[in-house]
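Reviewers asked in the last cycle whether our approach scales beyond single polypeptides. To address this, we selected a multi-component target totalling 283 residues and predicted its structure end to end. The input consisted of the following lines:
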Amino acid sequence: MNPNSQHQLWTMWDYTVVPDPPRHPSFVQVRENCVRFARLAFGSAGQIQIVQKRRSWHVRVLAEGLPGHDPAFADWMHAQWVRFFQHGFGARCHVTSAVKLMAGDPQTGRPADQMLIVPTIVSSASEEM
Amino acid sequence: MLFPEFGHRDAGAAFVWPDAANALYPDFKRALLNKECDMDTDTIKATLIDSADYTYAGTDTTYVAGANGVADASKVAVSSALGSPTIAAGVFDTADFSWTTVTGDVSEAIILWDDTHASDRLVAFYDTGMTGMPVTPNGGNINVTVHASGWFSL
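The resulting structure, written as structure tokens, was:
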């Protein structure tokens, strides 16, 4: 897959959730539900990363083909996610939302953004072979 | 060709290394062991590299052009200091970042380096398994997502 080829559009959706205090769902529960909802909301092409921090959850979704640079669409999508989080983390959970165009035409007249995803290096004895 | 995955000897020729793969620079490992690098407080930067003008060598030590260094012609875009560096559980990670309004040659690699000390020590080289590479700068931004498992783990 080349995300930088013509007509590709990739956006990164970031959500930080501070749950309503009584709610303590397990990581497995959160992961399963977030994956299911992301697939429903964004379609199948993409990646999701879920990080549990001490008092919050961080959900990042890299999605293909969505007009995240359109404020109206972004607001609508954020509203869907907030409603989803309120079901799982409680009605008074606090959600911070952000979206960034990663690759594609920003439709502002400036050149298209491009995206790179850097792999990780695992340093081990075998690396020295 | 003998052991092509490890490089080979052609008759009468010097040892030929295979194509570079993602790697930590050996001198960086030495520097870590010698307490010369502090990855979550040092100024760590990333540079987009044109592989036509730079080839990884395990003997390279410095980002500065010259002996054991990185040729200036290969440096297509340089980041500012990478944000939110962390070193949890042996993993070095930072926030995602962007090179803005990038122009220049087609690029195939990224070098991570430490801009804190005069040595401008090389940290790691990436040219394999990168989604989006090679990238042709078009004057727009190049947005970089760091792997979920960070830049590297020890």
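Chain A touches chain B through 28 residues (CB under 8 Å). We regard this as preliminary and will revisit it once experimental data from Aim 1 are available.
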